[in-house]
């Protein structure tokens, strides 16, 4: 299985940096006009970008390759090219519309060196869940704007362009073949014994030739040291220390993956948008879910970057307001997949409350878009209420799969939480929701609690309010989280019995006897990383931290589910919003542990 080290910034993502080949296989960016993501893809034989090296006329393969990350986000390769020491660092600078590749070489013998970057631009794709090749023309030509070559894609008019520049004198060459456009960026120099040499290749992205070339030129003018110092400074300000080096790495790498892969700026309109993942390796990439963004990614982003969290809320109550609660949407707010989900309808209110509580920024409460969004949420919610009983139905479950029965206990707990939040945030306007919340709480205990064969009470997963219910749980919206949302105490008997049932070895989706003793569900019958997050939050943090120490996930990045023995990714690689909830859960569990001490 391929191992990738993703990196990126607000404007672009490099999801597939291949550990085995040192190749950058693709580049992605967001486009509002196209409602999703565009992927610039390399070829099967030659990736989009790859380093090469010759010494004294002989091509040298890279060996003994070892990867690490500077500031837990910037990939660094150290290896050998013959007897030469080779280092490559990939920098995605904060605030820039591009990235940079710095190559360093050192040796003990004199050598004539030819090195640089080579690659093939084979195709371009439109990506929203499914990937479709773009119809258009690919161009490469010499340009005075960067004194090198420029690549651009046109569909009648320009659609995007990318262009390299270098801090050394290089030769650029390209050729068009049946498989795309191949190119080389080459530098020649002599290396003396004990000497080192470095070269930086800057790549700019833009709408057309001038924007792409000058994006690269801006970074060249600033210089590697300035861009590196500014970027690592930004990253280092957001780094948190966990109990062990492995947990520290897991936390910070996933935090930055969440920030840069669940949010981004569109290339065409420069608007902040949110998405499940800016990597096509995730099976529903580049689309928006209220739940994923606001219940999973948002808490970690709020902790690390309150200003970005505020921008997310403005996006949600702005672009996304019209269809709040609908299954999934495009990044422009229009409906992608129809279907009502109660947990998603409540998510904006819960996120808003957490933002105000943490920042004391009450001004956002009076934003006209926020106030209009809340009114709309409450209006939609009322249409989902049972005619007599104060419980609310949904059409889809937290996995986005269809319900068994329409009234989910977990979802109604979110209704309770959201009502209490609005009563707290807007006491004059929505103070009466406190009483409605209490009515929902009583209805849950009256209609969603059942007894097992030993007469022990437990919460059913979903009910029809006619006596039918099912025993089930889903990691994306688990009954284990009821104390986390403040609905009941951790020593609540009914909740304790419920958790014991779904964690028991006899439960169909339990992996209680496996090294990764988490819970799955019908959507993906393996241990979920979101289940591990739930464990961190519901009293099983020692087990969950122990699992994190031993599991690989998706090469250190959160995925949907893992193998119960090996801890390697089984479904949902590059799951950016899940990465956020993993960070939030780790931090919350660590706080509890420190308070206990």
Folded structure, characterized:
- The chain contains 14 helices and 30 strands.
- With 597 residues, the protein is an alpha+beta fold.
- β7 and β8 form a beta hairpin.
- The longest helix is centred in the last third of the chain and has 21 residues.
The fraction of residues in strands falls at 25-35%
How many strands, which pairing sense, and closed or not: the largest β-sheet?
A: 8 strands, antiparallel
Q: How does the helix and strand content classify structurally?
A: alpha+beta
What sort of overall outline do the alpha carbons produce when their principal axes are compared? elongated
- Global Rg: 26 Å
Spatial order of the strands forming the largest sheet: 7-8-9-10-19-16-15-14
Mean pLDDT: 97
Helicity level: 25-40%
Number of strands: 30
Unreliable runs, pLDDT <50, ≥5 residues?
none
Number of helices: 14
Instruction: Give the distance, in angstroms, between the N- and C-terminal Cα atoms.
Output: 42 Å
